[in-house]
Amino acid sequence: MKISISVLYENMTRWKPKLLGHSGRDAMIYSGLYCAADQITDIPGKILFGEPALFPGTLKDKAVISFGRLPEELAVHNTLLVFPDDSSRSAVYQEIELLFARYEEWDDSLHRALVERKSIQHMLELSTTILENPIYVHDRNFALLGSVNMHEDQNGWEYDQRNQQYILSLEIMNDYKLDEAYQATMSIDGPDIFSDTIFGYRILYRNLRTEGAWYGRLCVNELKRKFRRSDFALLSHLSDMLLMSLEMGHAHVSPNTRELENAFLKLIASGNLEKTPLFNALVQYGWDTKDEYFCAVLQTEYRDTRTNAIAYTCRKLYDMFPYSCIFSYHDKIVLVVNTSQGRLTIHEFARQLAVFLREGLFRAGISSVGRDFSQLADYYKQALEVYDLGSQKDPSFWQYCFDDYVLPYIFRQSIRELPAHLLCRKELFLLRAYDEEHRTDFFKTLKVYLEQNMNISHTSEALIIHRSTLLYRLERIRALTGMNLNTPKLRFSLLYSYYLIEDQEL
Fold it and tell me: Does the pLDDT value for residue 240 go beyond 50?
């Protein structure tokens, strides 16, 4: 493994050397020492080692380790690591050689682990003496893949009993989503430092990304020692090895899951799919074509996308509702919940989901129950419609079930072409105007009478009036409007009008 002058300098501070010269100090390009002689030989990848007299002021683009005073002009075009003149040459030389051997051994061990397909945890354990601070890796779902040097001051992880692994707590994920500084870290390609705003200590990190795919993140917490310049390059080397490990299959996704997701995505996007591919996908996932299901949609925000919180949320939801197929579509999270296998009603689902939505800063639209997976696009649209409708009518709610909003949805559809007042029975407006002028209560009386299925006793009880008073009011209503309430269609039209008037606040 090649290392930099900075790595050597920061590992030999007890000798009190000075690091001088131009910007090549952090380049990971050196594999050993070359003892300089009277004639300087250019050997790529080697650091010149020797007495000051061996290095003329005309030397250029070299890395030099020497002792005592060197010509000042030498630092203009070279990188210099200068030890005190009274330092033991042989001891310094041996220690530097040991450092080269140490990092070479680390690199070899990482490559062996990669070839032998060792775990992420094993690769981190090999790196404890290199980075020294607590190190951990989480995947794209914010599940912990490995951690070493764990410190009691670290927090933010909670144990998932079902999957027997640690996952980021919802509280911390919400902090990430609301922190613009953290959101900005998702687009960083190289190693960088995240401030101590959330945890109280700095984190050196690198995103594990290749060809647009984000596998997760490698992090080092600044708890046991202060970060060094060389940590950036060493972290990059470790992250490259971890990324190869993840690409080789440690971030495995079940092909059965992916096939059903793809089938559902095609259904939602196009509204149709040949029955054979859908049938095969359902069977491979362990579902039956006759299973009942419903569709739920969570609307995400820009902050969810920037922090990769969508994948995290899908993982958390699947842990809560294992008899589901959960995936992202555009800016939404879609849950297809199998009620036949999960033995879960919509209202039980909504009750379990409520706390998660509130803590995760989400809202959800939930469709009716379906019995034909080929109609998923319609139930997906139901969930979208009720989400939009419920968000407008009840913005303080966290979730909206379509079955609870059927009438408001019908009202919304019915007034797209005509204004609401043209769809209501004119007799009701007449009664309301009469009430206002004569201080009567015929408008409300008729509504309660219809809602009580024209039962005299129940209506008088609901209105808290005498039976004879009710009969008088009904006779006056008939006389004023001329309506014959024995006609079922008329009664339906009147109740529809009452609810539309309330819904539109006419």
Answer: yes
